[in-house]
Design goal:
heterodimer, A: about 280 residues, mainly alpha, MetI-like fold, B: 2 domains, 2 strands, about 70% helix
Amino acid sequence: MADSFYMSRLAIFGLVVVALMVVVAIFAPWIATHDVGATDLSNIYREPSAAHWFGTDATGRDVFSRVVFGARISLQVGIVVVVVSSVVGTIIGALAGYYGGWIDRVVSGYVFNVFLAFPGLLLAIALVAFLGSGLNKLILALCIIGWVGYARLIRGQVLKVREYDFVQAARALGASDLRILFVHILPNAVQPLIVQASLGMAGAVLSEASLSFLGLGVPPPAPSWGVMIDEARGFNTLMSAPHVLIFPGIAIALTVLAFNFIGDGLREYLDPRQRKR
Amino acid sequence: MKYKLLGALRRIAILLLVVWTVVSLVTLLIDLVPGDPAVAILGEQATPEQVAQFREKHGLDRPPFFFSFPRDPSGARHFEWHGLSNRYTEYWWGLLHGDMGRSFRTDEPVIKLIFARYPATIELAIAALLIAVAIAIPLGVLAGRHKGTWIDSFSSVLALVGISLPGFVIGPMLVYLFAVKLGWLSASGRFYPEDIILPAITLGAALSAILTRMVRSSVIEELGEDYVRTARAKGLSENKVVYKHVLKNGLIPVVTILGLQLGVLLAGAIITEKIFGWPGIGLLLVEDGINKRDYRLIQGCVLVISVTYILANTLTDMVYRWLDPRIRVS
């Protein structure tokens, strides 16, 4: 029990961090103290101070303002990727699970196996390498690797719920397939979907930063956290201004940690069997 | 016996299907490249003859697939059959002969470039695996034995932090600490044996976190079994009970995760290799492939990394089935 109490406190911590992130992302232009792109070569590698809360980077840009605007990019990518892939995944998973037959054989026998057997990040890297980099292409690539997890989850849920008595009853009363699917089956599958979405946010934020770090995401002048870390890891920067690396690093780690805490907390909350462990 | 054979055949069928899909994707993706790859490589000032020669040499003048739907002069699309002289067949034909084409940039055979770098990546992945195991087993056992105490909570939080800290955050911080501040290790490259330490820790951190959680729940589960009571009753020390009996059974699921994670490590190595300038296949992919738009090299690297990943997964699955017969039937 002590364990579950501890975990739920972590989930609350996660919620607080995410709420803070959302506020920062929405009000970024008012929170940022400087112009994100403005370089100032007479003011490089400044330590954190009252003028520059997180210091300045190799070209004298204000690190605090860039971290603030970075939250926008991360959340934007995360939300779009999670919404698109969960909707697409839910539709495909529900169709496959509900109708079975050849649709299910193609989706769960072939597509799931292919995606499972393929390292997601590598597929995203390959797609962006061929498509060219940019925010929209990055989001597209992450959606392509992302929907499968939701489809698998929903398919499993539908297979389970389909056999319940109340669904059989609805069918006996003459409800249409669509009505059964949307009114009776899907609401019962929403809980694990929320857990998956929360963990999916963590994954999307991490993937965006990874691809941007590799130079495959948002192109450099934009304040993506991944780009900031890539720019900060040169020997000179590390030697004279490690804070340029540390602040975006903390931002990524906190965000990913927060979504993971929420996902884990929700899973334990929704599945009391796990709570005892 | 029947199930065993069927299961193995099924695995092999899936394996072949997946490999076929990967090769097809890798072959066809090059058509998504915006603009002409030949112009991207040769530059805007290349003469039409140079471009034509380049396209012919690398097979870019052939159609991408068996058929296409080109536009008529009137603008409507029609079906056109190209026969066997297409890039898809040519790439397959080359692959079956151990040929992945030549680099767009250096004209060297791609397969040669890849296998020059491959050992460094495998070395890194194995080192990361070892480090992860060396951290996870003692930490997981400690947490499992002291379930519910602060030791347990502490190691759970540590594990979650490890999962959430991406390699490109841990890596540069390690460089800062050990190369810049302390000067104990070099920041990048692969010249001395100790150069592998920082990249291996970076790559293994997330895995060790996942493993710690698994070892912990395995230990907790096994400690409740009857044989543990027997072992304790016959007077074995607690250390012997845990390390000789519990771990042996508890490690079966951990072995699976290890195998599955070997593939994840190979993919993650792309980032780690970039951080530390570790001359593996990931660095080849990023620096020589993607940055220089050498699409033939990108194809080869993606293909080799994916196939290694797929093989590692399939092997793990088979070892797992062999280790634990209960899974075979279901």
